[in-house]
Amino acid sequence: MSKFGELIDDKLPLLLVFYNENEEVSTGIHPVLKDVAAALGDKGKVIKIDTDKNNKLSEALRVRVLPTLMIYKLGEMVWRQSGEQDANTLISLMKDHLN
User: Fold this and answer.
1) DSSP secondary structure, 14-59, as one string
2) Which architecture does CATH list for 2-96?
3) Residue 45 and residue 33: Cα distance in Å, rounded?
4) Half-sphere exposure (CA, 13 Å, Cβ side) for 24?
5) What does pTM read for this prediction?
6) What confidence tier does 10 reach under pLDDT thresholds 50, 70, 90?
7) How far is 3 from 89, CA to CA, in rounded Å?
8) So what's the pLDDT on residue 1?
9) Count of helices and strands (H, E) across the chain
10) What percent of the chain has pLDDT over 70?
11) For residue 35, which of 28, 57, 87, 92 is within the disulfide window of CB 3.0 to 4.6 Å?
């Protein structure tokens, strides 16, 4: 989990997306995330986290519904939502947290 602390302790907003490779609803967000990453460029980060491979982290953050999305900035969670989101909403949320 120390790597997680380093990951979220950034000035840039970070969108974490918890998903499971075996769930269609969960993997359906991948094209949306590509659009978000493209729109942000180097002003933000988008990171996908497979809950099967990161079970302890998923449990620690109480991820129950997939996909679960979180935005972190400077080590603090500033937004969290479960379920599908569209690219425009996510881009707008991330831009709200730019310096």
Assistant:
1) EEEEEE-TT-HHHHTTHHHHHHHHHHHGGG-EEEEEETTT-HHHHH
2) 3-Layer(aba) Sandwich (3.40)
3) 10
4) 0
5) 0.92
6) confident
7) 28
8) 52
9) 5, 4
10) 97
11) 87
